[in-house]
Amino acid sequence: MPRVRLTNKDDTKVQIMKIFKRFDKDGDSQLSKTELKAAFAELGAKWPAFRAWEGLRHADDNGDGLISIDKELDKVVDHAVNLGYTVN
Length: 88
Fold this sequence. Notes:
By secondary structure, the chain is mostly helical. The chain has one domain: EF-hand (Recoverin, domain 1), CATH 1.10.238. It contains 4 helices and 2 strands; from the N terminus they run αβααβα. It has helices at 8-22, 33-42, 48-59, 73-82, and strands spanning 30-31, 67-68. Strands 1-2 form a two-stranded antiparallel sheet. The protein is globular and about 30 Å long. The termini are far apart. Mean pLDDT is 90; it is low at 1-6. It holds the Pfam family EF-hand_6. It comes from Malus domestica. Residues 11-46 form the EF-hand domain. This is EF-hand domain-containing protein.
């Protein structure tokens, strides 16, 4: 059976996903703008509040002002990777 090998981009996505999930401080499986802002700050964003707003704009499909970890977080992670965020 072939083994799955992560590319650098795949590995980066996994690591960034873990960071975002870690900032779900209230454990509701959703990220608020405040939680997104803290996660982007952890990633080294120069303007984390702007990045949080952008993340919501890109991924908040139902317009509730929250990012569902199960349904919408992949879009935020893809956006962060496309912006060039990495994890050392």
